[in-house]
Amino acid sequence: MMFNFDKNIEFLNRNNDILTIGELLVDMISADYDENFDSNTYHRFFGGSPANIAINTKRLGVNSSVVSAVGKDGLGKFLINQLEEVQIDTTCIEEVDYATSMVLITKSKSSPKPIFYRGADYHLEYSSKLTEAIKNSKVVHFSCWPLSKAPSRQTIEKCIEVARANKLIICFDPNYHPMLWEKGEDGPEYIKSIIKKVDIVKPSEDDAARLFGKDSHENYIEKFLTLGAQLVILTLGEDGAIVSNGKETVKFETLATEVNDTTGAGDAFWSGFYAGVIEGYTIKEALQLGFAVSAYKLKYTGAVVELPRLERIKEIYSIEGGS
Amino acid sequence: MMFNFDKNIEFLNRNNDILTIGELLVDMISADYDENFDSNTYHRFFGGSPANIAINTKRLGVNSSVVSAVGKDGLGKFLINQLEEVQIDTTCIEEVDYATSMVLITKSKSSPKPIFYRGADYHLEYSSKLTEAIKNSKVVHFSCWPLSKAPSRQTIEKCIEVARANKLIICFDPNYHPMLWEKGEDGPEYIKSIIKKVDIVKPSEDDAARLFGKDSHENYIEKFLTLGAQLVILTLGEDGAIVSNGKETVKFETLATEVNDTTGAGDAFWSGFYAGVIEGYTIKEALQLGFAVSAYKLKYTGAVVELPRLERIKEIYSIEGGS
């Protein structure tokens, strides 16, 4: 496959647009900034990057479905309810005999301190329901999270195989973080073996540094391409992004004007990009829509904000093109 | 060993009075009652039954020390800080590479729904520091919690062995709950094998029913005695307790007049009993002190309340005797 910046992607006719697979979890976030462990009040939030993307894309106006595992408990019910409220298909969410995964985040001016409580999420098992869901979708998306542990790792491997056979676009967020991996395992080496098998990756500079060590932007892009990715979107925070399809490399500027909270900005980018390619925009236009949705999100607090439809985003940020 | 109701326990000369081993964790409790998973605010509390007993006994005026494992994270720091604030010895608290254990409790009028996030607590390993701590103590206390998983199970087994060799009084809370155990394992059978090796047990009626099935109070007591316990304190909530040393069985009435919150009432009972036996009261008097401290705690909200010294409790509840 080759992603031409000035062409749109031709999708097969499928009922569902975006299938996101992986972490669906509760973010438990301290009410106050806390440098000394004295924060006693926490607020519960819907979380998990793929689940955020599913909600965003749905709000932008394309279909999405979430594949994940939650516990048979109140937090699992809360997460499923949140997805159902925006009419996202939850038939591929398994309820398992482990606690719904949670990330406890104590806000800090110096460094935020997450504590990972992983239960249900990595117990996602492959099933024939998943085969059906993949066959019915145009794009499949996942991050490093489910790859960090068995059995969800094997589930993702199987999903990639089935997605490839059924000609989906396979997108991967290489957000490798050592804290999620078993001690002693070479996470970066494993992640590299996965990059070979996917089409689109969107690493941040930090992600790239964790995988390859400190290097130049050009070398990072080259390394992802050499591993086998077809389109590499290297995001640079306020400096925009460098995107390469192996033949052509394009620099994009951020569209952000007002930055209130960066949480979920990456998920918003993915969401705008996905909505764009699904709606028939060219790769270049879809990338601009990614920046536009990200810019919109940055104005508001929270990982998932009330996004308008894609057409409105297009107007606000004066994005050209479209089918 | 034989516990005579009208005699005190002769302890060897040791620096520390009560050594509690096991769960030290965060209780994350919903701010509101919640029947429909919509509670978004949670408050963090110090928790874990043995740790509560350590704080209580310290406040009553005897020495205590806690053996446990917490994570190298903010919640672990919070728990250690709380113990240090009341001058409890924390040198036997290990900081391990797992998240500090947490129990998330969503309050409910129908049934409270705990979700267990176990990380650090069951990774408690035996060490020579622990041998020293046991050799320096008069009483050792633990509950079913650390027995439910390896490696803390083996740590407790070793503690029992060393405590026996060093002539400590070994006290066990047989609060068996299937949710904490691995599926397929016969928890009750294992707990029974532990009861053989301890001196004092304090089951509630529910604990006894979970271990032996529904039966009469007399049969419950007989079963604990037959297994090898030397003193069985069968607590019956507002109906007090039945206590037997195998030769004599005595009925005790509760001293509670005002019940505001039952959380931690059992820990308060243990605490009053321990403070009593350490201070040289007879078994019967110590049991009454247990009821007195429990009654005091019941008036206030929270698992651990600001207890006065034992002498004051004795006055308030007109308990006779003492050394």
UniProtKB/TrEMBL annotation, chains A, B:
The record, for CDD domains, names: KdgK
Which stretches make up the Carbohydrate kinase PfkB domain? 16-306
The UniProt keyword set, sorted, is: ATP-binding, Kinase, Nucleotide-binding, Transferase
GO BP, one annotated term = fructose metabolic process
Where does the source fall among the domains of life? Answer: Bacteria
User: Pfam families per the record?
Assistant: PfkB
An annotated Gene Ontology molecular function: fructokinase activity
Q: Which family does it belong to?
A: Belongs to the carbohydrate kinase PfkB family.
Q: PANTHER family recorded for this chain?
A: HEXOKINASE FAMILY MEMBER, PSEUDOURIDINE KINASE-RELATED
Q: What is this protein called?
A: Fructokinase
Species of the source:
Paraliobacillus quinghaiensis
